[in-house]
Amino acid sequence: MDVKAMGDYKEGGITLQKVLHVPSLKANLMSISSALENGVDKVVFEQNGVRIMKEGKTIATGSRDGLLFRLDIAPAAQQMDQASTDKPAQAKTPPKASYEIWHRRLGHLNYQAIKKLHAEGELVATGKIPDGPCGS
Ligand SMILES: [Zn+2]
To answer: In terms of domains, do 83 and 101 share one?
Structure first.
């Protein structure tokens, strides 16, 4: 997975931390739990999208694409803090981590979806798919 930028995205007075811009997925990935820890009151998942809310106000939206919810932040790369980019822009090999780590990194994405991304070469998931819930 070619992670273009990783940084903080500021909107509505709050900062969504560790938003990943992944050109190959045409998506911004964020950690829901870190968003909730950083001022977001509510993340509402709906049939066709997701809304990130603070004080009753929608501050960011996303749309559903299959198994993933894509955050509608555009143009993403320019708004991010390039200094915090921790991956080279042109990574030759997909990033490698265990299923457990990917699950957490991708906002508790289900393991079958991670397996699919692995099969598509977007990422490398190592080890076995853990049994049961992750406990967080
Ligand atoms: Zn989980």
So the answer is: no
Statement to judge: residues 78 and 17 lie in one domain: yes
How far does residue 98's CA lie from ligand 1's centre (Å)?
A: 13
- CA 134–ligand 1 middle distance (angstroms): 5
Model confidence, pTM? 0.34
Distance 26 CA to ligand 1 centre (A): 23
The pLDDT value recorded for residue 82 is: 44
Tell me: do 27 and 75 sit in the same domain: yes
Residues near ion ligand 1 (CB < 5 Å) are 108, 134
Per-residue pLDDT band for 131 (boundaries 50, 70, 90) equals: confident
Among candidate residues 101, 91, 100, 85, the one with its CA nearest the CA of residue 122: 91
Domain that holds residue 105: 93-136
